[in-house]
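A reminder before we start the practical. When you read a complex entry, don't treat the lines as separate problems. The point of joint prediction is that each chain is placed relative to the others, so the output describes one connected object in space. Small molecules and nucleic acid strands, if listed, are placed in the same frame. In the example below there are two entries. Take a minute to note the order of the lines before looking further.
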Amino acid sequence: MSQLTKIGLIAGLLISSLSYSQESNTDLGQIHGNFQTDFQYYRPDSLIGAPDVPEQFLLNGFMNLNYTRGNFSAGVRFESYENALLGFDPRYKGTGIPYRYATYSADDWEITAGNFYEQFGSGLIFRAYEERGLGFDNAMDGIRARFRPAPGIKITGVIGQQRFYFDKGDGIVRGIDADWNLNESIESMKENKTKIILGGSFVSKFEADLDPRYNLPENVGSWAGRATISKGKWGLFAEGAYKINDPSTVNNYIFKDGHAMLVNLTYSRKGLGILLAAKRIDNMNYRSDRTATVNDLLINYLPALTKQHTYRLPALYPYATQPNGEMGIQTEITYTIPRGSRFGGKYGTQIAFNWSIAQSLDLQNINDTTDIYESGTDGYTSDFWSWGEERYFQDINLEITKKFNRKFKLIGTYIYEEYNRQVIEGKTGFVYMQAVILEAQYKLSRTKTLRFEAQGMFTDQDRGSWAMLLVEYSISPKWFFAVQDAWNYSNPDPNRQIHYYILSFGYTKGGTRFLANYGKQQEGIFCVGGVCRNVPASNGLSVTITSTF
Amino acid sequence: MKKFSYILALIFGLTAGCDYIDDPIQEGGIGPTPTDSVVQKVLVEDYTGHKCPNCPDAATEAEDLKAIYGERIVVVAIHAGFFSSPSPGFETDFRTPAGDAMNTFFGFAAYPAGLVNRIGYPSQHILNFQAWPPAVATALDETSAAKIEVSADLSGSNLSTSVNIEYQSQIDGDYSLIVWITEDGIIAPQVYVGQTIPDYEHNHVLRTAITPTWGDIVSMGPVDLDSTYTKSFSSTWNNEWNEQNCHVVAFIYDQQTLEVVQVEEIKL
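Here is the predicted structure of the whole assembly.
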């Protein structure tokens, strides 16, 4: 931490000295950045289950500063958690500079020292990224080199340790990726209508073995290969990954190898888009600390392949990817009924249909005397093509958007969802949910818009059914006001049939935006791309200020 | 194309970064028991709750460690946080003011989780139970810096406890002593992955802290190797505790790092 701060300060001094020492030069370089602070005042509210907050006020904040001049760039990120907002890991504590880097690039190569984010392919074996809303950040701290030896060929090598709150994980991650665009690199394919990009990567982690019970692999390697092929309206992306034995807390110390397969097929023409996606994930939890859990020290990224609902009620049941194993399919069809037809009207009608399902693998015992997932063994076998019996998640939804005239637009949504709480949240039960949402937008004038949402979510499980209304009035580009109330009207506990109301106010000027919310937030899960965090209930005032410069 | 074959060679040459394991289970398992007169012992604090669905697995892990290392492991189950509050069906209140304070201070957010000799504070101290074995193995390898002797006497409702500390190496810092009472064999309901076990046996339960939560100062600055530091306490006994099943746990820790230097446990 103090070492990081020192390095950060040195980077900062470097930046300032660079910009001052070049005064005679007209090009002083440029500094850009952004700033955000989230502040929340918590009121005690035991009825909604809001945890006590002894500090009463909590704050998360960060600022990015990036300096660029010619081929050189450097930057720092200052972060502050005084203390971290509820729902963020309390190990985010205090203030510091956990992210700093310097990059130099020339014609066909680029070197980064310090922190960086990077992704190989779709991330099945390596993805370093941050998701601020989740409190997720597995930035690398080390060295990255990129090299373009020939047209169409890119090679990226990385080595370093991963961010762990205000510290670093002990494990070392190293990897190399090659990306080969055939159309750019092979003369005879330049004019070819079929576009092909191939890629391959290798990643390995090192972590000392101190375990008294098992002989653990200290070096765990993984490979992935991928292909993107497109021709006209069609596109295909496929990636497969393999990982050697990697016993860990998450897989209960089984010594089985891991596999992952991801295939995406797309078709699009004017008015019609079709996406078909399938995945199979088998024992692919991959972290630089084998005892890490939840969102800590993840090396790879396994996509959820489900639609992420943004409406407040259906967003209560999002899917989280199961790294130990799952099979899933997603289909999405978007179709626009042409203008002027009977159902298309003057502006056309958009229909979006989405279906996704995720299910367990079909696990078999490795022999008669060994339990499935027994520690210190190969754990299980599973046939590549056969589906397991346990349903993790299913979502069928339909969204119809219809513009009636220049002022008035309606969006209707229907969602049916099956949600395995035991697997996704570790709580008991299985939730069957249906939701109906009607959203109306009415333009009062060129700048003033009134938006209205009515949501109903119906279930007999968990907390029962919900109804919600929202009215939002915005005067673009500056002002924004909203009132919403989500009512948990059929909670099995009559005392908890609570109105979760929220009043919101926003103001934007230039690159700065101010947003305030006052009210009650229900407990829930917040996910981005299948990575989730629990958000406890809260009651109070929250203020967010964001600024870019 | 020649360049590409170089790249391929490079990628597949990296397979060096792979350890394939054919014999997962360690032979013998445990290292030799030290023959020194003073043995380094390790404190495992298991933060738990009776409504925490995965907590019995952590308790099992702690018992497994005791099975491997015997008396060199001192386990204390601290019921605190979200899953520990009493509610219908779970009336027993296992919480303690000291447990609540430590739970907040150390920043536990998910359970089960624990501390092994409180190593790693402030950012790497919270360990899920699967991380205990390597942490315990590492901590046991440390050379013992102190020897602790505990004696206790219960007469009526008064418990007198005395703790002698002899430093074994020339350490320099501020060291504090914490003394706790723990109880085994409490039968009460416990949630376990989707079900409730009505007659679950709760062991090593922290009952009370005899010292203040963060302890009593033993020594400040360079220690004196020739003398024995003695601390005596008198405390009130709660008759709801079964003294046949109770232990006194005493440990000293470095106030700077919070790391536990040595721990001792005696049966009451």
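Discuss with your neighbour: Chain B has a mean pLDDT of 88. What might explain this?
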